[in-house]
Amino acid sequence: MAWILLVIAGLLEIGWAIGLKYTEGFTRPVPTVLTILSMVASMGLLGLAAKTLPIGTAYGVWVGIGAVGAAILGIVLFKEPVTLARLLFLGMMVAAIIGLKVTSGH
Description:
Blueprint: H1 2-23, H2 29-50, H3 55-78, H4 84-103
Helix pairs in contact: 1-2, 1-3, 3-4
């Protein structure tokens, strides 16, 4: 169950990271509220997952999911650059997330 909560927390982290762009410096009320709610939910679920999982693993996976997801959505939504090096490093981050899961013992 902790891993499910952690994945949901990571997905919500993607949501608030991308949401930051849409808040336009927290000047737009609806995107701001949705971003803040996503932040609170994401951290809350991370906290619940960390009750069972090692904190280094939980935090690393949470950050990794958020970073990879935000980078991919940045490419798709905001036309950020796509380079072979960038894709390679994103792939390494995915490998690191999988490695943390496999070696966590949970």
